[in-house]
Each structure stands twice: as C-alpha cells, then as structure tokens.
Amino acid sequence: LCVLAGSLAARTEAANSEENNGFTLLNRINYSPSLTTSGQPTEAEMALIAAAGYDRVIFLAFTNHPKAVAHEDDIARGLGLQFIHIPIAWESPSLGDFAAFAAVMQTFGSGRTLVHCEVNFRASVFGFLYQALFEGADVDDAMSLMQSIWVPNDTWEAFIKRVMNDKGLDYPAL
Burial letters for 51-64: b for 16+ Cβ neighbours within 10 Å, e otherwise? Predict the structure, then answer.
C-alpha cells in the first residue's frame, strides 16, 4: 500500500509540476514517466506538450468531435512531435484497434508519449491495457488510475475483457 501511495504521489507531483508551468490537460493520467493519457489538448497546449519533453502524440478519436484541433497533425509535426492517428469508434472498439495501438507503442518504445482522445475515456482504457499487458504494471494500480476519471460503460468494459482474454489474462470485473 505504501508503494502504491508513493507511486501515485509521485505521479501527482509530476503532474502538478507541469500544471504550475501552464501545462494542464483534461482528465490527465500519468500511467508512467513515459505514458500520459488525456482529453483533447488545445492548440496552445500542444506547444507545452513539446516543451515538456514529449516525443509523440497518439490521437484515438475522430477529427469531427467538437473540441478537435484543426490540423493537429501539422501542428504536432511542426513542434517536432511524432503524430499518430488511430481513430477508435466509440461504440465498437476492436481487438484490431488495440493491436494497432500496441504496435505503435512498441515501435516507438522509448521516449514520452501522450495518448489522447476527446475526454480521455478511450485513451485511458488503452493506457490501462498497455500498462497492464505490456509494461508489467499491477492491474489494480493501473485500473485505479483509469477509474480516477471514469468507470468504463458496458461497451468499454466488454472491450477490456476481450483484450485481456485475448492476451490470456483474467479480467477483474469493475
């Protein structure tokens, strides 16, 4: 319990440090020093993301949501960030979607990654799954971080279960 408390405190401290520099992100979760998830950053926040040392941005929503940043790919690349767009249908996330995401994460293994969607629901699930399945994170710890911003609905809980079962792991129901 002390290790978890220390880990969560360190993540909160790192987030607060960046927030004090004008760097706030909607529903932000720092899963690890190299993986952060959030809701849609603004155009101004994109520059702060680059200045904070992130190497890449992975966008998991569609470009037609109300808070989407026009030409986000061009903005990110202009700031020296890699930009990867994997649009995930809200109503029907698939094993293929997660496989594509995991392949991108493994291809660009080192460096800091921001994964975002509209409000950090898709991204938090993908962050939870990646940390639990590929980074050896404790499932309960990673799930607690995800649940700090939302408890997945039936569609997304079923998706989590499918992905974990596909990887040969039991899913601890929410």
Answer: ebebbbbbbbbeee
